[in-house]
Amino acid sequence: MLRAEGLHKRYRHGPPVLAGVDLALEPGAPVVLAGANGSGKSTLLRILAGCSAPTSGRVLGRPRVVGYLPDRFPAQLRMPADVYLRHLAQIRGVGVDTGLLETLGFTGRRGEPMARLSKGNAQKVGLAQALGCGAGLVVLDEPWAGLDVDAAEVLVELLTGVDAALLVTDHTGRAARIPGARHLALESGVVSERHSRSLGVSESAARSPEAGAAGASAGAGERAARSPGRSESAVRSAETAPIPAVRVVVLRCADPAGLAAALGVVGRVDGHRLVLDVAGSDVDGLLLAALQRGGSVESVR
Predict the structure, then answer these.
(1) Architecture of the CATH domain 2-193
(2) What is the average pLDDT score of the chain?
(3) Is residue 240 pLDDT above 70, yes or no?
C-alpha cells in the first residue's frame, strides 16, 4: 500500500497548493481524483509518482516501478515510438509490451519521430508506456485527453483490469465507469471524499433522459412539499404539473461523442457541437452534468 502523509506543497508565490494531504492507494481499489483547474491535482500526482518532492510530508510504500502519464505528455521528441518504449522499458528493467499500441488503435508510423504523431497517437504511446511496464502504481493525469471514441472505450476496459494501485484524474466523466472506483476531491489543498453525485439528476438519470425527466419532476414535487407557506393545492399542482416541452440543447466540447457517452445520452454530433433533444424538466440537471465533464453550453431553445 502507498501512503501519503501530511503532504504540503508551496511555490514561491500564492497560498499552498497542497495543505496537509493524506491519501492511501492499494491494488484493486482505484481512486478517481476530481478538482477544479489549478487546484493542485497534477502537483499531487507528480509527488505520488516520485517526479516531484513535497515541501513537507512524506510518501511511504511507493513501488519500484511506477507507470506515470503526465497531463502534458512529452510527445515532441525525435525518438520514434518503438524506440521510446524500449528505452523506458530498459530503464525500468521490464519487457516491452508493444501490443498495447494495437489495443489502443495506434495508427501512426512506429518508425517516425514522435513529434510527427497526432495528439491522439502520442497519447496512446504515453498510455502504453504507463500501462505496459508492470507497475505497482499507475498514475494517470487526464488519460482520455485527445483519444478518439474507440480508444476511449478501450481505455476504460484496460483500467478496469489494472492489477496495481491506480490513481486517475479525469474531466470527461469516463472514469466514473471504472468498477469499484473511490471518488475523491481536491479542494483548498485538502483531499476529501467526493459527495458530488448530486448533479441535479441522479446517476441513473444522467444515463437515461427518461429517468432524468421523471426524477426531476419528482424532485420538484418534494421541494414544493418542503417549502413553507405553500398551500396543499399548490403542492398538488407542483406534484402533478406536466413535464415541459422538449428543448434543443447545443453543447460544445473537443470530443462531443465522448461527452455524449459520459452523459449517457444520444445526440447529433456537428463538428465540436453536441445537439440534444432534452425534456424541459431535465435540462438543468443535464447542463450541470455537462459542465462538470468539460462541456460548455452554446444554446438552449
Answers:
(1) 3-Layer(aba) Sandwich (3.40)
(2) 82
(3) no
Within 13 Å of residue 69, how many CA atoms lie on the same side as its CB? 24
Q: Which residues contact 114 (CB under 8 A, 6 or more apart)?
A: 75, 76, 77, 78, 79, 80, 81, 84, 122, 125
- pLDDT at position 270 is 86
pTM exceeding the 0.90 threshold for the entire prediction? no
**Amino acid 245: pLDDT:** 62
- Distance between CA atoms of residues 7 and 18, nearest Å: 6
Each domain of the chain, given as residue ranges in start order, spans: 2-193, 203-300
Sequence-distant contacts of 97-102: CB under 8 A, at least 24 apart: 97/128, 97/131, 97/132, 97/133, 98/128, 98/132, 99/132, 100/127, 100/128, 100/131, 100/132, 100/158, 101/125, 101/128
